Every structure is written in C-alpha cells, then in structure tokens.
C-alpha cells in the first residue's frame, strides 16, 4: 500500500487543528460557566397574560341624513329672499368700503356736520372715506348703525354653517395711534 506524502500532511494538520480547538474549550472558561450557572439558579421566567381584547365595534356613518352644506339650492333661496328668513339685499349698488375686509379698515376719527356725526375711515387704498349711519362697509354686508367718538357700530349679515343668514353686531374702534394724537 502506498501512502502519499500529501495525505500524511493533511492528516497531521487536521489532528493538530482538532487538538488546539479542544484546548480552547477546556478549563479556561470554567469560571464563566459556573457564574452563568449560579446567576440563573434563582430565575424563573414568568410571562404575564395578555390583556383581554375588547370586541370591535364598527361605526356607522349616517351623514346622508344631514343636509349638504355645499348644496347651492339652499343658498340661492336665501339670496333671493324666498326662504322667508333674513337675507342681504344683493340688488343694491355696493359702496366702495364693501370691497375691503373690515379688519383692513381703520377708524381714524370723526367729523361732525350739524347734528350728523361721520366716521373717518382709512382704507388700504390710502384714501380717507366718510361713513354715517346707514352706510355700508366690509365684505359681510355690514351696515353702520351708530357712529360715536371712539367707535363705529355695525350690523353684518353672514351665512352660518347651515346656509342660513344670521345677523351679528360688530364695531370698529378708533385706531390707538390716532387716540394718542
């Protein structure tokens, strides 16, 4: 029988590798193994029970029973005045101050002519306008109901979430910078 020199070398190398690997797993890690054993002696795993699942309750959406806020027919009835309720007069000519939001208009003073008190309004276009009781201003059909030294009171007609027209009162106070002059 012939034994090759290459096969003897490979057998010898495998024997050395096995012996050296066996040495790694000897007594060197015994302290680690004993610590692991001591640490795990008193431990007992306990998993808490899962909470009881609540049954699923579906939600039924019933918006079809509600009125459509975007339906144009309801708003058209109110604008025409056939709804029997409050509605702004859309047939009258608009005044210049109705082109601006009320928040952009500033009361800067008053002007008295005889028994009539006019309010002086500074508009965003840079011009000064006079208003009196019965004048319109703002984009919510606001009609001036009273002009006083420090404020102008208005009655506005606005549309609520249901499409109905409602009245609200508001006022425009004298600009603080003008009061100090």
From TrEMBL:
Originating organism: Iodobacter fluviatilis
Protein name according to UniProt: Pilus assembly protein, PilP
KW Cell membrane (keyword) present: no
N-terminal signal peptide: 1-19
Keyword Signal (UniProt): yes
Keywords: Signal
């Amino acid at each position: 029988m012939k034994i090759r020199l290459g096969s003897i070398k490979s057998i010898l190398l495998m024997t050395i590798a096995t012996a050296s690997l066996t040495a790694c797993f000897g007594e060197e890690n015994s302290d680690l193994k004993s610590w692991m054993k001591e640490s795990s002696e008193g431990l007992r795993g306990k998993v808490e029970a899962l909470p009881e699942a609540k049954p699923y309750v579906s939600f039924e959406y019933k918006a079809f029973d509600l009125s459509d806020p975007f339906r144009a027919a309801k708003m058209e009835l109110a604008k025409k005045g056939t709804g029997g309720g409050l509605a702004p007069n859309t047939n009258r000519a608009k005044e210049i101050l109705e082109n601006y939001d009320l928040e952009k208009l500033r009361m800067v003073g008053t002007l008295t002519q005889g028994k009539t008190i006019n309010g002086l309004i500074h508009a965003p276009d840079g011009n000064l306008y006079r208003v009196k009781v019965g004048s319109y201003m703002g984009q919510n059909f606001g009609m001036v109901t009273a002009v006083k030294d420090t404020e102008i009171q208005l009655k506005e007609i606005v549309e609520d979430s249901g499409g109905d027209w409602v009245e609200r009162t508001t006022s425009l106070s004298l600009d603080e910078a003008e009061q100090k002059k």
